[in-house]
Amino acid sequence: MAFFDNLFSPRERGPLFVTTAEIGYYLEKMFREAEKSIIIISPYIKMSQRIRSILLDKSKNNIDIKIVFKKDFEINNISAQTFKRDNLHAKCFLTEKYALIGSMNLFDYSQVNNDEMGIFLTREENSELYGNIEKEALRLCCSFYSNTTKDAECAHSKLPVLEIGKEYKKEDLNSVFSFMSEYTGGIRKTTNGNIALFYFSKSSKYTNREKDGIIYYMGQNTGSEIQELKYGNKALHDSFTTGKGRIFLFKDNFFQGECFVCKAPFQEDGKWIFPLKLKLGI
Q1: CATH (domain of 85)
Q2: 135: Cβ–Cβ under 8 A, 6 or more apart, which residues?
């Protein structure tokens, strides 16, 4: 690894051309150094033990991991948002500091046996190019189903105009969101698959705790002592398992930002708990 560090030093100003061995090296470097986010775009995925171990460690440390794929794969306890796209052919890997585009899937066989090539670059030295790659990568972070036009629409293209830190009354949000019903509880679904979440720091029978940057949001009352996985609870659970839909969080009626279910939902004392984390840069 020292050889690669010396050969491709920070003094290099332009994007670097890399082949199979360098791609493997830079993937590990990118993932190990990630402090905020990791985006993996790969049609076919079969992680090596080293890559799986790195990503598992990062997910435990609340790094935002997004994975765009074509063929189902084993994620093995890595907490990540996953997005299935039937037409995916691109291969791209992105963190808040680096980008790598090339021919290689995140597939252990490819990293050892194939002749691959790609381009590696840093955000610091290639900000405009990095920005273009990041924009397209985020566009791909939605599910795609070729059979229906409606499902193919990406909710990321529909951006409610909301100001972080501003107070909004629930009735005022009807002009921003197209809610599916008149239900005014804490979890409100919209007609385009998005979700608005509301919680209050005081005077609420629903106790939401915060720890290490994660909000443990208590699920919706479903009419029995043990909350069932339906209504708003199912919507939040589906957001975690499919990656579809955007989640907008309000605390004491003040908009906190867009968030996502960052870890697997679980039940505690008969209540559904959804671990939420605010997105960066939203």
Answers
A1: 3.30.870.10
A2: none
